[in-house]
Structure formats: structure tokens, C-alpha cells
Amino acid sequence: MRVSLQDQVALVTGSAHRVGKAIALELARAGAHIMVHYSATPDEVARETQREIKSLGVDASLCKADLSTPEGIESLMDAVKQDFGRLNILVNSASNFQKRTLMEVTLEEWEETLRINLTAPFLLTQHAVKMMNQNDPAGGVIVNILDKGATDAWVDYAHHGISKAGLHALTRVTAAGLGPTIRCNGIIPGAVLKPNDYDTEQWNNMAKKNTALQRPGTAEDVARAAVYLASEDWLTGVIIRVDGGEDALS
User: What is the CATH number for 146?
Assistant: First the structure.
């Protein structure tokens, strides 16, 4: 059954820009109020995202928080409680993305990446579930944003992929362990954001070669999948690939 997201409250981490912003906007179009989280993004960029969300007729709050520390996570959840008093949807989208092979990764880089990409979603899940189970009716939904390194040996992004593999496991454990009141699903995006060192022709050629649909996707494709997973109430433990058929060709 499709559940209305009208008047629900969603926390989307890393939602001031890029994929996180697209997800926040799509949830807002579905009627959800949004807590916009950001960290390194400039304040004015975050405020502009807040304005865009509010222009859709819903409420939006801002919270700048460092997800690499338990204190930052607690401050973010305190802001949700203070501004909205409840939580229905958590989207773990914020991510550290660093290019390193296994032998290049330093211990500091390893620990930082796991703190942001895995430990933060774990702690946010614990906090969020406590809030969600206070809802009337109790419960809520979590959507975790993964990437191909969660299932493939992405050797050039070794520690990043390993952290996302852990998030993949966290998604399934959350779904299996916290039902029926809490649902948890994941998304593995494909080529939806053009790298800064690619021009448009390179980007389109790469997508033509590597995807069954022979074209790149967009952040909005991921956002629509997130709203689908949040609103379909018999989906949990599901990992959706939004990749234009890239996995089918591998």
C-alpha cells in the first residue's frame, strides 16, 4: 500500500547540495517537512536549499553538524526534536568520498571514512528509531544511499567501498531486526553526477559505453527512488539499483 508522505517529517543528511538536495526536494514535493543537514557546504548554499524547499509549501529547518562525532549527531537529532518534535523518515545520504587504493589508505583516512559513511548512519539509526517509535502510530522508514562499492570490488576507492559494504549490511540488519514498525531500504546509484574532471562529451560517452540505457542519469532519478521506498509500506530490506542497467552489463 502506498503511504502518503504529506505532513511527515524527514531528516536527510548531506541535503544542502547534490543527491541529498534532490532527495530533500522530492520528499518536499510529496508533502514532507525537511530537516536540511549540512557540514562543509557554505551556509548560504544551505540557506538557498532551505528556501527552495519552503517554496514547495512545506516547512524546512537547517542544522549544521559534524557527523564524524557522536556529539555532532546528538546535536542534529536534538535539532529535529526541537524544530519538529517527531521523525518519520531518515535518509542517510551524507558521505565521504575519497580515492585511494588499499595500500594507499592511511589509518587516519580509513577511520574518518568509516566514521562518516558507516558509524554515523548506525548512530543516526539508533537515535531515529527511538524517535520514530514515539510516533502515533509508531514506526518510520530509513533509506540508506549506497554505491557500487557496496557490492563490487571498487579497488580505486577501497576504504570508501568497504564502508558502503558495511552500510549495505546495516540496511539489511535494520530491516530484519526492527520490523514491523521500522522499514529500511537502500539505493545504489549509478552514473548520476558528472565528475568535475569530465566534460559533457566524456560523461555521455562513458554512460553510453557502461549502461544498458546508454545515457547518464540524474540526481532526481535517485530522489524518486527514495520517495518510492519511503512510501511503499510492504518494502523493507530492499536494495534498488538506479544505474541505467550498468549492473546488468557487468
Answer: 3.40.50.720
